[in-house]
């Protein structure tokens, strides 16, 4: 399910929502329990103080009150206490101390006025209440034997003494909060209070918490949504620019001035990619235009020559010349098409299985043998300096490279000039260099010399038969072998073309081809 | 009519020049940009055929520089048929263009149309009294009868007719009907004018002594 959400923004929002809900919810729960505990503590403190008051009142009760003698069974009222004679005679007019254990009030009968007073004092603190006035607080006091000394406003079902051991306990019984504890003389004191609106207040508090949480969550999510939009907006801008660039023109670029740092990097990378793409595109477009130009020109020759010749009656000699012109143009076109195909093939990489172990110096020697007549014609001396260099390569393609370079060196040389061809090992690389004593190539031309249809000597164009593709083909072939081709030149002194072929890489490639 | 063909492919240049010559034009040739520009500036050609991809100076550069001095009609020959190339060519001052490989008859027709338009005529026929010159078919009629003229006689007549009322010098006529390879004698012009007069009537071409010739003056 998580993986199904593809939108970064949605995922951010979901994550945001989860974290916010967790935080807000956690705080709400914590707050709820804190508030609840505080309210209960308040309630319990009230119960405890009430219980303390009752306990104080209970201490005034004579012990026999607690002895398990129910009120109807006290010692006979009229009988004097057993130890009456031993004690000092009571002074009739003396008001007995109300808390003296020896005081005559202790001898009151169970229904005596003293007991009545004591029972009256055993009550809730605060001003005396009118009859029928309700109070949320109630209490009960039991003797150890389970009989009730006094109970006030007890809710129904509370008359039976609950058992309690040691420490006082507080608990809920239904809607009532109760405190149960021990009083003096093993009596049991129960204080209770109708918790009344506390649960309702807590419920309301829960709702308030939920409401506040929801608002916080909504504000947080809105903020997250806005921030994520702000973050993602440049991305959509980049995407829009990118699609415009790939769709219409390659000249546009992503504006990186207003983009955040992280995205600026991305934009820069994209812009660089577009630069390269545009470069490749421009080169391709130029190549296509050049190729069509080169092909259209001989085609125009054939067409217009034929048209012209047919426009009126000609002598056999004129027909012969016309057909010869057509043939020359057709030959040129054939040559051009072959070279273009060669170039396209080299661009696509070497076809599989064409690499084989060859001796580079022998390939070059064969090429030189073929070019000897041309060198003689141009009065150019060829010298060679070979060491055995075995390579794994396409021998035919390599011969083409060597042939192009050496033929150029002879063609663009001065009469009586020299061409020096070297094959050597440089580290693990095979190096073929062709040095001529021609006019040299200027830096501007040197940069573009490997471009397709580029001619250094523009005045000596098609009339000399060059297609402007030779060096471009060399470059493609060398690069298809993983090597490099370079040109050094000094104007007036001559040029050196150097082909460097990495033998290790070529061997690996040859092995890979075998496995295919 | 004198034409300049600027084309670096020698075979194509030769074919174009030959086709134009067979149409009765005097044709000069140039094999690269600088040579083409030099000749275009040096002579008042009736029209120029200009290839775009030239060594030295390319066609656009030649056109741009030529237009600073001359309004010679230029027909561009291009192998680039991309619309932007055509627009670029027309914008720098080309009058028309054909895309290689072209139809030779179409090129010749466009050349005729260019020359006609530059002479300020929308129609291919010139009428002078009972003499009608059809520049499209290169024929001349007088009172409905066809008059047979040689190519050079026709060229001289067309030149004079298209500059009706103007005095045209012998040198102008000479430059107009002979190309750079000709080294004929300048009195050939007088011979041709005399022949035209024989065919169309003595008073058709008037001579302004010391200045030149005029038609319908």
| Poorly predicted regions of chain B | none
CATH third-tier fold name of the largest domain in chain B:
Rossmann fold
- Total count of helical runs of at least 4 residues of chain B: 8
Structural class of chain A: alpha+beta
CATH architecture of the largest domain in chain B: 3-Layer(aba) Sandwich
Taking the sheet with the most strands of chain A, its summary is: 5 strands, antiparallel
Average pLDDT of chain A works out at: 79
Helix/strand order of chain B, N-terminal first: EHEHEHEHEHEEEEHHHEE
Number of domains of chain B: 2
- Tell me the major beta sheet of chain B: 5 strands, parallel
Work out the radius of gyration of chain B: 18 Å
Write the H/E string of chain A, N to C: HHEEEEEHHHEHEEHEEHHEEH
Q: State the name of the first-level CATH class of the largest domain in chain B.
A: Alpha Beta
């Amino acid at each position: 399910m998580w993986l199904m959400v593809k939108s970064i923004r949605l995922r951010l929002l979901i994550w945001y929502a989860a974290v916010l809900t967790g935080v807000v919810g956690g705080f709400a729960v914590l707050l709820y329990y804190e508030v609840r505990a505080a309210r209960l503590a308040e309630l319990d403190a009230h119960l405890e103080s009430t219980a303390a008051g009752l306990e104080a009142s209970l201490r005034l009760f004579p012990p026999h009150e607690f002895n398990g003698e129910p009120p109807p069974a006290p010692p006979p009222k009229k009988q004097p206490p057993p130890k009456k004679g031993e004690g000092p005679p009571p002074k009739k007019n003396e008001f007995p101390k109300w808390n003296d254990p020896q005081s005559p009030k202790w001898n009151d009968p169970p229904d005596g006025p003293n007991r009545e007073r004591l029972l009256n004092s055993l009550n809730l603190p605060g001003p005396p209440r009118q009859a029928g006035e309700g109070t949320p607080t109630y209490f009960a006091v039991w003797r150890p034997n389970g009989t009730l000394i006094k109970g006030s406003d007890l809710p129904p079902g509370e008359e039976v003494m609950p058992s309690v051991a040691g420490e006082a306990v507080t608990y809920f019984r239904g809607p009532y909060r109760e405190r149960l504890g021990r009083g003096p003389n093993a009596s049991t004191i129960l204080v209770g209070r109708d918790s009344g609106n506390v649960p309702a207040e807590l419920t309301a508090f829960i709702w308030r918490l939920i409401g506040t949480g929801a608002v916080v969550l909504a504000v947080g999510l809105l903020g997250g949504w806005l921030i994520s939009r702000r973050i993602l907006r440049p991305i959509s801008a980049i995407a829009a620019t990118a699609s415009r660039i790939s769709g219409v023109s390659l000249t546009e670029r992503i504006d990186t001035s207003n983009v955040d740092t992280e995205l600026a990097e991305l934009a820069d990378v994209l812009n660089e990619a577009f630069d390269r793409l545009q470069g490749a595109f421009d080169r391709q477009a130029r190549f296509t235009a050049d190729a069509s130009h080169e092909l259209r020109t001989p085609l125009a020759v054939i067409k217009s020559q034929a048209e012209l010749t047919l426009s009126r009656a000609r002598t056999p000699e004129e027909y012969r010349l016309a057909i010869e012109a057509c043939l020359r143009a057709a030959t040129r076109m054939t040559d051009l098409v072959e070279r273009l195909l060669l170039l396209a093939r080299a661009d696509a990489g070497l076809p599989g299985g064409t690499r084989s172990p060859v001796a580079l110096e022998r390939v070059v020697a064969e090429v030189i043998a073929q070019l000897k007549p041309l060198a003689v014609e141009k009065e150019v001396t060829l010298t060679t300096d070979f060491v055995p260099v075995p390579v794994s390569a396409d021998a035919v393609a390599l011969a083409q490279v060597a042939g192009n370079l050496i033929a150029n060196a002879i063609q663009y040389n001065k009469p009586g000039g020299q061409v020096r061809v070297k094959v050597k090992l440089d580290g693990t690389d095979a190096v073929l260099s062709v040095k001529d004593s021609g006019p040299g190539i200027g830096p501007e031309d040197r940069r573009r010399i490997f471009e397709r249809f580029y001619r250094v000597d523009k005045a000596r164009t098609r009339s000399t038969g060059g297609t402007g593709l030779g060096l471009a083909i060399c470059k493609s072939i060398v690069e298809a072998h993983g090597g490099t081709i370079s040109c050094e030149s000094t104007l007036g002194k001559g040029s050196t073309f150097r082909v460097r072929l990495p033998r290790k890489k070529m061997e690996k490639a040859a092995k890979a081809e075998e496995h295919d | 009519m004198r034409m300049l063909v600027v084309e670096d492919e020698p075979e194509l240049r030769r074919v174009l020049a030959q086709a134009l010559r067979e149409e009765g034009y005097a044709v000069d040739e140039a094999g690269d940009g600088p040579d083409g520009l030099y000749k275009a500036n040096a002579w008042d050609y009736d029209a120029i055929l200009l290839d775009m991809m030239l060594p030295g100076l390319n066609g656009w550069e030649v056109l741009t520089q030529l237009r600073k001095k001359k309004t010679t009609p230029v027909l561009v020959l291009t192998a680039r048929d991309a619309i932007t190339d055509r627009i670029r060519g027309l914008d720098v001052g080309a009058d028309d263009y054909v895309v290689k490989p072209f139809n030779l008859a179409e090129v010749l027709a466009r050349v005729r149309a260019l020359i006609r338009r530059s002479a300020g005529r929308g129609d291919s026929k010139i009428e002078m009294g009972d003499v009608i010159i059809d520049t499209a078919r290169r024929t001349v009629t007088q009172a409905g009868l066809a008059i047979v003229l040689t190519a050079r006689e026709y060229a001289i007549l067309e030149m004079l007719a298209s500059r009706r009322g103007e005095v045209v010098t012998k040198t102008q006529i000479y430059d107009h009907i002979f190309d750079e390879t000709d080294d004929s004698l300048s009195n050939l012009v007088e011979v041709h004018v005399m022949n035209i007069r024989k065919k169309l009537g003595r008073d058709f071409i008037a001579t302004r002594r010391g200045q030149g010739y005029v038609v319908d003056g």
